[in-house]
Amino acid sequence: MSTLWRSLLLVGLMSACGLAQAFGLADLSRQLGEAPVVKGAFIQEKHLRALPQPLVSKGHFVLTREHGLLWLLQTPVQQDVRLNANGIARRDAGRWQMLPGSAAGTQQNKLFFAVLQGDSSGLQRDFELNLQGSAEHWQLRLTPRSLLLKQIFTQINIDGGRFVERIELRETQGDSTLLRMPESTRADSLTETEQRDFAD
Amino acid sequence: MPTERRLPWLFLTLLLAVLALAGWQWRGAAPLSADLMTLVPGATQDALVQRAEQRMQEPLNREMLVLVGHPERDRAIALARQLADSWSASGLFEKVQWSVQADLDAVRQQLLQGRLAMLSQADRNTLIAQPHTFIEQRVQRLYDSFAGVSLVPSQEDWLGLTGLIQNSQPRPAAVQLDTASGALIAEADGQQWVLLRARTHSNAFDMHLPLQVADLLSQARLQADQSGARLLAASGLLYAANGQRQASQEITWVGGGATVGILLLLLLAFRRLRVLLAFMPVLVGMLFGATACVALFGQMHVMTLVLGSSLIGVAVDYPLHYLSKSWSLRPWHSWPALKLTLPGLSLSLATSCIGYLALAFTPFPALTQIAIFSAAGLLGAYLSATCLLPALLKGIDLQPAQWPLAVAQWLVDRREGLLRKVGSPLLLALLVVFCVAGLWRLDSRNDIRQWVASPPQLQEEAQAVARITGYQPTSQFYLVRGADQTQLLERMQALDTRLDALIAQGTLKGYMALDRLVASQAEQQRLRESLKQLPAHWQPLLALGVTPQALAGELAQLQALPPLDIDQALSGPLSEPWRALWLGADQHGVAAIVSLQGLSDASLLRAQADGLEGVQLIDRLGDLNQVFSATQLSAAELKLLSCVLIVLLLILPFGLGGALRIVALPLLAALCSLASLAWLGQPLTLFSLFGLLLVTAISVDYAILMHEQIGGAAVSLLGTLLAATTTWLSFGLLAVSSTPAVSNFGLAVSLGLFFSFLLAPWAASRPAKECP
């Protein structure tokens, strides 16, 4: 289901949070926001209740502090998605196309956009945040606060160390999505291709 | 004399009866209305169109849209919540809503039930014509990280129909849901705006409600200011409140100004306190006017009251007629003075009534009301001036000031001096040149917006609300009819194609049509048929691990889904925004509204309905403006007709020549006023024309006065001057009204009075013959 959340989470964790703990949300936020660019491979497993096997797809991502997120799915289908302040765009025949209704502030479908349109600073407003562990190995658990979100998610679990490594979304309907990003690396700048992808 | 004793009592009895009737009429709520639409001609007799118009008008008159803005979202939400709570407690509102709490289970249910009926046309076509592509796209969406949350779990909808339906629902432009609070939020100008919708119990035309709502809003504004927040509001209620405030202010100004002016004039001219009783016919006139109006129409519009307050100046003319005889008649006694002027008074009443009642035959309820109000008012004033007032003024020793007579004499001398040098024919020629040149430049302009004073602040706020929320309803809409639902939806589809083209051009922002919510039964059947071909194409789904049984089961379930009609499709929670569009069935078939967003050119919209059967653009305002222009012509005809009537009436006392002369002067005065309007750069509106129609009626009176020459030229001119001054005091003050239509009316009447006074001396046949 919607893995948009995970990207929002990444963005959110880079900027939000502020409770003081041994290893607090502020520390986590600082830690994750340190690198200007993070990239790596991802493996997505969609566990649908009715399917014996999860739907597995692979690709890689580029997350930047300034330009947003590139999400390039490579197998079994190819699909490039870009997420930035303007909304979500999908690459179609080499050109980025904004998804209708995804542009910041143009979403209304009452129930639907609720989930699509989380804003980075709003994470704490929407979820109860519970952080455990240390800077090298931490777990963040998100429990929805609002009635609306409770009808969609039961819980979101995020694990990581230097970078986010694992995100699990549990849906109220019984499906879940697991996203792994085992080998993320830090970069100081974007490659030319990546720059082009973010530019147009 | 017995009549002199009996008349006052007879009149007092009548007055008591009218007072009792008025008391009964005003026993509960004031029978006043502020609904502009009751003032304009019912453009249509078509009940369906009327119902559609009401449906579209209702939210304007009952709903208020408020934006609570603060740079911090939480503060804005807290404030909106607080506001909603206190408004709910106020008892004025049926519903105050600031947050959305959706029942997702009900939405799921509706989506599942509507899988065939609610699928969009594009998706339907893909499924029917390219089933292979359809399945491939579905598989892609299953992998897609950004396809969004589907409310229905995939095992209940492997084909992904519900997700497609979700995505095709309309999304009002700039508003988003704050998931934590459920508030609807728009971001603009560095502020977080929380949307608050309040719906009142009754509508804007309940006289008290708009003011109460406006008060509540200004309290809320104060509160918002204190917490550093801003409030923006848009509602027809606020315009109504503003209109009412303004009307009562103007009644005070126009009525009060005219009253003070006239009382002062009476005192200055006649120098007796008791002469102030001459104001009594004015009060009686207002009473008779209002009572007749409520009796005939059930209620009275505030605009009638504003325009009607100008009656003061005309009503006071009756007592002035015989009071002014005190300059020539020494000693002055009330009853003999009345007797001397009674024929003139009666003629004046008759001609004025003819002029006013001519207004009643225009198709404008507004003018009919004013006509009835004025005619009844004049009758009341006439009766009180002839039956009661002389008794009250009996024995008064009138010693009028001599200076007004001196002024009048001076004017008469000036005029005669001028005539000796120039001569009437040359003056007339000059006047004709003035008129022709002016009329040449005159342009006519009519717009219903002239009837409403739109304060810039309200307009700016409404525009800001439209900009921030992206919600820009237009007053135009389409009414689509069909013999049955299938035909209706097909006709809408034809219209959609054209409207989509307008959207692509950028001339239209958006529209809502029921065929976007639900497919016709024939289309639903076509889709159901095409499901049979799916097993040949669903291999990619099987490859994911979906079992053939699961897919076959889903297919069987889909095929067994009952077809949905419009009523059923509208019953679910997703359909809420669509419900107002459905007008249902009547004996001729079914009908629905297609609403539009974003202002567009009305003629362009009208062209879209060309050649589409059963599709009609409803543009009430545009239609009205056309009716206005058409009415200008018929008003001019009425004016001529009323003149003919007046001539016929005057032939008896004055002969054909005298009658023609007396009527020609007001007509010439009207022409001069028209020309002056043009020279002043003012347009001719329906209202200025009606004003001139009135002036003809009033100024016939002056011509009669001057023609009769009772007491000599100077005394007659003085009588005319007094009458014109009092009339101008009331009508002229209308010119300061902030409602363009009213001020236009005042200006036209003022000009008309000025020229009538200027030309009136030519009504006297004798001096005219002596002079050249």
Describe this structure in words.
Chain A: Residues 175-200 are annotated as: Disordered. The complex is a heterodimer of chains A (200) and B (772). With 200 residues, chain A is α+β, with helices and mostly antiparallel strands. Helix content of chain A is 21%, strand content 42%. Chain A is built from 6 helices and 12 strands. In chain A, helix 1 crosses helix 2. The radius of gyration of chain A is 16 Å and the shape is globular. Chain B is of the alpha+beta class and 772 residues long. Among the domains of chain B are: 2-29 and 241-441 and 623-770, no CATH class; 32-99 and 181-234, Alpha-Beta Plaits (2-Layer Sandwich), CATH 3.30.70. Chain B is elongated and about 120 Å long. Residues 767-772 of chain B have low confidence and may be disordered. The chains are: A alpha+beta (200), B alpha+beta (772). At the A-B interface, strand 4, helix 3 and helix 5 of A face helix 4, helix 6, strand 4 and strand 5 of B.
Tell me the overall shape of chain A.
globular
Any idea what the CATH architecture of chain A is?
Clam
Gross geometry of chain B: elongated
Low-pLDDT runs of chain B: 767-772
| Main CATH class of chain A | Mainly Beta
For the biggest sheet of chain B, the summary is: 6 strands, antiparallel
Summarize the structure.
Chain A is built from six helices and twelve strands.
Note the main attributes of this structure.
heterodimer, A: 200 residues, alpha+beta, outer membrane lipoprotein receptor (LolB), chain A, twelve-stranded antiparallel β-sheet, 6 helices, 21% helix, 42% strand, globular, disordered N terminus, B: 772 residues, Alpha-Beta Plaits, six-stranded antiparallel β-sheet, five-stranded antiparallel β-sheet, 63% helix, disordered C terminus, signal (chain A), LolA/LolB/LppX (chain A), Outer membrane lipoprotein carrier protein LolA (chain A), lipoprotein (chain A), OM_lipoprot_carrier_LolA-like (chain A)
